[in-house]
Amino acid sequence: MQITFHGAAREVTGSCHLVECGGTRILLDCGLIQGGRERHERNREPFPFDPATIDAVVLSHAHIDHSGRLPLLRKHGFRGPVITTTPTARLLEIMLADSARIQEEDARWKIKRLKKAKEDTSWVTPLYTEEDALAVLGQIVPVELGGTETLSEYAEVTFVPAGHILGAAIIDLTLQEDGKTRRLVFSGDLGVQGSRLLPRPRIPARPDYLIMESTYGDRERADEGDRTETLFGIVHDTVARKGKVIIPAFAVGRTQELLTRLNDLVEAGRLPGLRVYVDSPMAVAATKAFALHPEAYSQPVQELLASGDAPLQFSGLSLVTRVQDSMAINASQEPSVIISASGMCTAGRVKHHLKHTVGDARNTILFVGYQAAGSLGQLIQAGTSPIRIFGEWYPLNARVETIDGFSAHADRTELLDWFAGLGGAPDHTFLVHGEEQAALALAETITERFAATVTVPRLGERHALV
Ligand SMILES: [Zn+2]
Predict the structure, then answer these.
(1) In the predicted model, is pLDDT for residue 224 greater than 70?
(2) Between 175 and which of 21, 36, 148, 156 could a Cys-Cys bridge form, CB atoms 3.0 to 4.6 Å apart?
(3) What value does the mean pLDDT take over residues 282-286?
């Protein structure tokens, strides 16, 4: 029995770990490497194993940094099942197709640029196409969240709710070889304690081996009190000024968490007559996928649903997909909340909404997620004025607000609490899915506090599971 770390080793993206047991080869996740051109180009390197020899992929959740190289794996010979939860399977249909379209667009843009410079374009191909994405979707074997699936006579997997995004699971593997049985738990990405829509991450019983994420291994979230109340204050004040609240948000996860909280406020009669628009085709598709899987919600939201109040549906809410409807919202002077992608304002319809609203002091731009350095979102968040959108300059007169706590990732304290809940340190813990300093900081604390054996593996590092 052994494990090799082929991705998200001392970095956050490209999750990919190979487990070998009794002749069965199982790949845990197959994510895209993201974050800048140099990192992205690494996706073009051949897999360090033959994809045709992989018996099954077990997928923790739908985020592209965990699933985005599946079409490539298929393209290079993988024909086995992709085993994941039913809600994840549904989100993958939306997210892999979208990822493929981005790859194709990228290639078209590159060809256009080279042609202009009269250079050779014959070498430019998309990383993968929509056809590749559709092909691998046909290999998905969905399992209920919480359910167990037999992979081979040597391996069995249980999908434990991780509370990170819809359908996200902690992978609990039971492996057998030469009469020995070992349990290996892979945390995937762990959710936050304070999510309204999704449950807290479950904690499995102490495994022999643990692979754990460390994204926020060196960071605590600020305690902001009740986030629904903060949201209420911002929306209430802006609407009283007859302004619009523009919320740039990631289409999958963040948007639905916001809607659940707005639902609470509207249903309680605290924001009477409020118009709320979700204006992003992908966010709308994701919201519909969320609505189809109430079994994956938190207990309080399931109770809400049982009482007759659908958490992603309330009067005044419009899900907008057509371009002309999106433009009509821009033209309207009506006070409203507009949730639109992309989360960092680097692309998508949110840029049009910003163009129409940043100049007016009645409006509020509300950030609920991380803004990378240099992104339009980060410039607005920093109060830069004037601000350039689609090549034109606009004064920043709108109010700018930030609510940090809507992240879908457990922070340092939550990661440590989750580890403590295992009821004893595993024989060996491996920390992945964090920048080097975050992973090393968490490793040091876990080693000291729990007398644990902890490794932060490097890319390609292999460990025997004895
Ligand atoms: Zn994730």
Answers:
(1) no
(2) 21
(3) 95
